[in-house]
Amino acid sequence: MNLVLDAQVFTVPYISFIVGLLFCFLGRKLLGVIVILFGFLIGYTLGAVLLADIMGSSISSSPWMSWVGGVVGIVLGLVAWQFSMFLIGAVMGLFIARGLLPEVSGIAHAGIALTAGILVHLYRDPIIVLLTAISGAYIAAGSAVIMMRMIGFLDAVGINSISSNAAAAIVIVLTGIFALTGYKFQTRDINT
Q1: FRET pair for 131, CA 20 to 30 Å: which of 2, 26, 142, 180?
Q2: What does the pLDDT look like over 31-82, one tens digit per residue?
Q3: Is residue 192 situated within a structural domain?
Q4: For the chain, what is the domain count?
Q5: What is the pLDDT, as a whole number, of residue 73?
């Protein structure tokens, strides 16, 4: 915790705070948008270079390559996102099956892994809600402590350093409050 505060990872704490709260309270709904945005950006930049190399031309001579790369990046991002949910469940299912049922055949392990993958793929919302609430809360809490230092609040209450244990404790408490509130807010419309 102190490492994050010492380095002041959140260089623009006002924006980081708002983004953290948005992710904490709307993460499940924003995750698809984030995947699409990053898929486009990666495809637009890196995919265009790869496409230009494959076609033997340059990006400057064919500006449409960046846009094609961006669209391909969106599609690949969405496919990878869907597949990753299944893959996470399958790996966990295989680990549990091999750990709890070592004497059962490999086909049964594969069946359990396949079933677990399908279940995680189908019921991913509660997991996504939990993870986005925690990560968004952490971003917001870290940004809040940095803003508290900027306005002099930490000095006023006797916390001389942002890297102190007291500042880290404030981040932990704020993260817990934001995460719990964000989780409750996001789960109000899903059956959990």
Answers
A1: 2
A2: 778 778 777 877 877 777 787 777 777 767 777 778 888 888 889 888 887 7
A3: no
A4: 1
A5: 86
